[in-house]
Amino acid sequence: MWQGIVWSLTLCLVGLADLGLANNLAGYEGFTKYTVQHGDESAFKYMVDLQTNDAELDFWLLTRNSSVLTVSPRRKSQFEARLSSLGVSYQMQPLMELMAALKANSSYSEDDDEVYEECQQEEGCGDAQRPRRRTRRQARGFFSHYPRYNEVLSFMSGLASRYPQYCRYESLGRSNEGRHIAALSISLNSRVRHRRVAYIQAAAHGREWITTQTVLYLAYELLSNLRAFQRVLQDVEIFVVPLVNPDGYEYTHSSDRFWRKNRHRYAGHACSGVDINRNFANHWNYQGASQNLCSEVYSGTSPNSEPETSAVVRYLEFNRHRVKLSLDVHSFGKFIFYPYGYAKNTVPPTVGTLRSVALRAANQIAKYRGTHYTTGTSASILYEASGSLDDYAYGSLGIPLSYTLELPGDEFHVPAHDILHVCKETFAGFVEFIRHVSLY
Fold first, then answer.
1. Cα–Cα dist 188/171, whole Å
2. Is 384 in the active site?
3. How far is it, in rounded angstroms, from Cα 391 to Cα 340?
């Protein structure tokens, strides 16, 4: 019965896929994707200034060495002239050409699941790599596409219904547009209040679809293999929020594929939305954030001003003495960040532990198919950015293990045939993070 429900939902979504892809790219005709190699500090600082203050450019990735961004046809000539004056090298591709290629590459075959064999009784295999004899067909069905908001909630409530002793479905609150910010609590006994909590959230930025799937896969895999993960779950509650920004997520499916912020509308203003990951109350609006309402990194009118942020803050503050791990899942770049992000030369007193756990998680992820993650602070690897969850959880609430995970990819649309592989390799990293919760 459960398998039938999953496949029915899948078939329904596949029928709508072509229509959704066309609608959510309307308005991007003539846009160009640029990959820019900075070359020196002046080029990097110029890009940081553009990201913070220029609302007409959309940065997908910004590191100290390179940038990935999209530019409208109106700004194309001006932008290229500035790059030439800086003497930097860059590659460009028409955005619609890129999206057409991604769409063509998004077909899913069951044979794809056999490309990477799971660990076969090798020495050093952890719980996350051990072979399983059960069928993979259920996972293939749900984790072969990007579900809409209602399908995500149906999947979550289905898990809670199937495993009532181990899983509880609840809501942290409602979004700007009234959608539930749904959560799952997973433990060996859902009726017991455990001493330790691992909090994991995804999709703070609406366009980062793959993040939701990895967190849902964590819940699915743990509940489907409770016996194998008893030691991991011993005296630990895993609390997952797959859609922190449900309005933005749904908007990227229906209207604008690359929407980042929430959907807060301001009377008398054409621009809307707040960057949830600039809205937390730790060095709010200090660096890497903007008070320009049209900016992609607009930090809101005040700390925790957004209902989505407030819902997370209420939960974490109420459980601050129980939560030992805060993990915020984003896309893309293959990074594991730990505090602090607000300033480059500021490190926490427990940086040694934070770095060690991050490296262990990265090593576990790499075992699946060799995906390499870079670890460090976002301020040192990317740029200074304040108001993030990882800084807030560690710096304001004292949660000892606080991280931001940036998943693989070269853009926000991971092909359908690769979704399950990203979920599987990320699962190994999640398990490694959760193992360390028992130390606190």
1. 20
2. no
3. 6
Provide the CA 181 distance to its chain's centre, in angstroms. Answer: 15
State how far the Cα of 436 lies from the Cα of 330, in Å rounded to an integer.
21
What are the Cα distances from residue 377, in Å, to 88, 261, 338, 345? 26, 23, 5, 10
| Angstrom distance (rounded) from CA 391 to CA 30 | 38
The residues, ordered by sequence, that sit 6+ positions from 6 with a Cβ below 8 Å of its Cβ are 138, 141, 142, 155, 158
Instruction: In whole angstroms, give the CA distance from residue 55 to residue 293.
Output: 9
For 186, the 3-state DSSP assignment is: strand
SS3 string, 52-114, reads: HHCCCEEEEEECCCEEEEEECCCCHHHHHHHHHHHCCEEEEEEHHHHHHHHHHCCCCCHHHHH
Q: What is the dihedral of CA 58, 297, 54, 86, to 10 degrees?
A: -70
What distances in angstroms separate CA 34 from CA 54, 60, 78, 104, 413, one per listed residue? 16, 10, 13, 21, 16
- Are 174 and 181 contacting, i.e. CB atoms less than 8 angstroms apart? yes
Q: From the candidates 250, 406, 425, 432, give the one annotated as an active-site residue.
A: 406
| pLDDT, one tens digit for every residue, the chain (440 residues) | 555 544 444 444 444 444 444 588 888 999 999 999 998 888 999 999 998 888 889 999 999 999 999 999 999 999 999 999 999 999 999 999 988 887 766 555 455 444 444 443 333 444 444 444 444 555 568 999 999 999 999 999 999 999 999 999 999 999 999 999 999 999 997 677 778 999 999 999 999 999 999 999 999 999 999 999 999 898 899 999 999 999 999 999 999 999 999 999 999 999 999 999 999 999 999 988 999 999 999 999 999 999 999 999 999 999 999 999 999 999 999 999 999 999 988 989 999 999 999 999 999 999 999 999 999 999 999 989 999 999 999 999 999 999 999 999 878 889 888 999 999 999 999 999 999 998 88
HSE at residue 105, side-chain half, CA atoms within 13 A, is: 11
Q: Could you tell me the pTM of the whole model? A: 0.88
**Hunting for tokens 């899948």 — which residue is that?**
10
